[in-house]
Specification:
By secondary structure, this protein is of the alpha/beta class. It is built from eleven helices and eleven strands. It has a six-stranded parallel β-sheet. Helix 9 links the parallel strand 6 and strand 7. Helix 8 packs parallel to helix 9. The chain is elongated and about 80 Å long.
């Protein structure tokens, strides 16, 4: 038997020749829709078999139909278009579930002062996704008075918090093992260990792969690439005569900056040294670099995140805690066989 297609807000809107926003407002009993049109929309929704989402209290009435996406403003610099990319995936996944996304950027000052997001204090959303490394103090301040949130692309030491992240430890372990299989024995990790939980995990995966292969790994040989979560710096690279055979970078952006600095020194990739990245995402200006990398799946991460926050706010049963999404190695021209 052919499965019946799920009715979406856009289907109802198309039948009536109105916007999906109007349909959403009508079905959630929000202001801005005339009573006659509201009744018409609800009757058509019922006739078409639209599934009214539920909240812990029962019907969706009283729900805003919005999910907040809160992002530290430092991640929306020109260098971090990856977070705009993730936001777009989240927005698409939410819309497919008949929810709208509302973004709020948190300034460094507000984060330091633990100022609650206005989306929460003004009750504009049903739940919140925190996207990008946010301080433990800030998240704990939110947790003290608000429960309907999850973390995306980072985690904290609080095991009670739900989060969705790429499997940074294992992915970095895999790409380091890949380099070793290509004959590389002298490898350096590029990434400021203290900056984010993701970089910490990627370094630990790198270190495990080296130890398993009997290759010396010194924490002191990490090459720093930033002063905090977002500010990339000029890296302190070894001289040409002390060059490792390969660099394992914590991100594609860092890998692109590294290759540029190496070229300034007359060092060619991969002829003189190999370089790998992480994310499979580069800004348009960097896409000419044929970078071997780990491809994470932002669409899958977004879909899992959205399903979790909706399960949480509607009182559905879900698996709590930390959710990991694996990646795959993409082989390109930045790595050579030794």
């Amino acid at each position: 038997m052919k499965q019946k297609k799920e009715v979406r807000l856009s289907d109802i809107a198309k039948r009536l020749g109105i916007s999906t926003v109007t349909v959403s407002k009508a079905l959630s009993d929000k202001e801005g829709v005339g009573e006659e049109l509201r009744i018409k929309i609800k009757e058509l929704a019922q006739e078409m078999g639209y599934k009214f989402l539920k909240t812990p209290g029962g019907a969706r009435n009283g729900s805003t139909g919005n999910i907040g996406i809160v992002i530290p403003s430092r991640f929306f610099s020109p260098n971090y278009s990856y977070y705009w990319y993730l936001f777009n995936h989240l927005s698409t996944a939410l819309l497919s579930k008949n929810y709208f996304s509302m973004m709020e950027l948190v300034s460094d000052e507000d984060e330091a002062n633990c100022t609650m997001p206005r989306l929460i204090t003004e009750k504009k959303v049903d739940g919140v996704i925190f996207l990008g490394q946010t301080s433990n103090e800030y998240i704990q301040k939110v947790k003290a008075s608000y429960k309907d949130f999850i973390l995306m692309d980072f985690y904290t030491d609080d095991s009670e918090l739900d989060c969705v992240v790429s499997d940074d430890f294992y992915n970095s372990y895999l790409i380091t093992k890949y380099l070793i299989s290509k004959g590389h024995k002298n490898l350096r990790f590029v990434g400021s260990f203290e900056a984010t939980s993701s970089i910490k995990d990627r370094y630990m995966g790198f270190a495990k792969a080296l130890y398993e292969s009997g290759i010396n790994c010194s924490f002191n040989e990490i090459i720093k690439d930033r002063i905090d979560e977002s500010n990339i710096i000029k890296m302190n690279l070894p001289s040409k005569d002390k060059l490792p055979s390969a660099f394992v970078c914590n991100s594609d952006l860092t890998a692109a900056k590294l290759i540029s600095q190496l070229e300034e020194k007359g060092i060619k990739v991969p002829a003189d040294t190999s370089v790998t990245g992480y994310d499979n995402f580069l800004a348009e200006s960097e896409k000419n670099i044929p970078l071997t990398t780990i491809a994470t799946n932002p669409k899958t991460i977004a879909e899992i995140t959205v399903q979790l926050i909706l399960d949480k706010i509607t009182g559905s049963v879900y698996i709590k805690g930390r959710h990991l999404v694996s990646g795959t190695i993409i082989e390109r021209e930045s790595v050579k066989q030794v």
